[in-house]
Amino acid sequence: MSGKVSNLSTEERLQYFIKRLSEKDNTKRYISGFTNIDSRLTIQCLKCGSIYEIAGSVVRSKAKYIYCKTCFEKDLAKQKEIKEHDKAIQKMQEHRIRYCNKIIKSKQLEFNICRTCNKVYLGNNLYCSDKCRRKYHDRQKEIKRRLETINDIDYTITLQKLIKRDNNICYICNKECNLNDYTYRGNTFIAGNYYPSIEHVIPLSKGGTHTWDNIKLAHRICNTLKGTKILEK
Questions:
Q1: Could you tell me the pTM of the whole model?
Q2: Contact status, residue 228 vs residue 205, Cβ threshold 8 Å
Q3: CATH T-level assignment (fold) for domain 150-233
Q4: Res 120 pLDDT > 60
């Protein structure tokens, strides 16, 4: 203790000690027991209300706060409760993920591209809706019907021969076709947007023929977007 403090009366030393206690940890309050700085003191924790003894020397130690067993046990219990809560939340989330994966796996769902409208959708069908399915099949029936009613058909026409003749270039956008742009779903062949196709310059519905002078190579998507229009080139 410094010389100035040693010259103080007992009451003044007590007030000095109480001030030091408040500066060190304002959550603790002095109750009784002070005779000198090294005596055993009774203090109260203002957080939890518990009353206990400490050594007076604790006030001048380098510790940042004065230990309270009750608060410490409450903090441990709170931390344990938080960990258990977080663990329960994580377990519930993992259960949900496993459940969703099980549902998806059982239904074998995956992202696909509709063969009719090219919309990306989640499902294991070839079409995003019944409307697109009916539209696609109606279109195929119409193409078959038109071919059956056309007298002028060249049966030597093949996609491979057309690719070779047109140097694998789409005549609508003048970009190269991609023979690798396709997938298989089971045994079903599914052409991609840039897969080559046989395009009728004058559509069959408008009197066009299925002959070499009326066909050109085109991307599947370009062919679809062109529809029954006649391009001026």
A1: 0.40
A2: yes
A3: DNA Binding (I), subunit A (1.10.30)
A4: yes
